[in-house]
Amino acid sequence: MTDTFKRLEGAERDSRRPLGEILDAIRFNDDGLIPAIAQQHDSGEVLMMAWMNRESLEETLATSQVCYWSRSRGKLWRKGESSGQQQRLKSAALDCDGDTLLLQVEQTGPACHTGRRSCFYVVLEGEQARIASAPLIDPAALYGQS
């Protein structure tokens, strides 16, 4: 844990620190990434987990349009740029260690590339896995494929 986050443990409620100081203290992994959990701001529904680097986090904070780092594409991924299913940032918070982000978002349509509202639809129950939701939109239609 960085000294910054250790000092924050004893910080009083509503005390403030410069954003740059906190961004400098984030514990990005060896690839320069931090996991970001997206949660629907009004219902608490967990929608997805993706990765952010400092650039995507700074863009998200500056524009309120959520931007992630796509590991498969090796570039910034502005949520909804191909599907139209955008995430508008309502708030962002770091965990106590500075190594995980929680994004409170306003999700437009499904968050999952499968067309489902949430990426967390495979429920593990005893000796089975159950599919807990159906797609809201056919993934082929979502991404303009025939």
UniProtKB/TrEMBL annotation:
The keyword Metal-binding applies. Pfam families: PRA-CH. Homodimer. The lineage of its organism: Bacteria, Pseudomonadati, Pseudomonadota, Gammaproteobacteria, Oceanospirillales. Keywords: Amino-acid biosynthesis, Cytoplasm, Histidine biosynthesis, Hydrolase, Magnesium, Metal-binding, Zinc. Its cofactor is Zn(2+); Mg(2+). The keyword Hydrolase applies. It catalyses: 1-(5-phospho-beta-D-ribosyl)-5'-AMP + H2O = 1-(5-phospho-beta-D-ribosyl)-5-[(5-phospho-beta-D-ribosylamino)methylideneamino]imidazole-4-carboxamide; 1-(5-phospho-beta-D-ribosyl)-ATP + H2O = 1-(5-phospho-beta-D-ribosyl)-5'-AMP + diphosphate + H(+). Belongs to the PRA-CH family. In the N-terminal section; belongs to the PRA-CH family. It is found in: Cytoplasm. GO terms for cellular component: cytoplasm. Residues 48-121 form the Phosphoribosyl-AMP cyclohydrolase domain. Catalyzes the hydrolysis of the adenine ring of phosphoribosyl-AMP. It comes from Halomonas organivorans. This is Phosphoribosyl-AMP cyclohydrolase. GO terms for biological process: L-histidine biosynthetic process. Mg(2+) binds at residues 95, 97, 99.
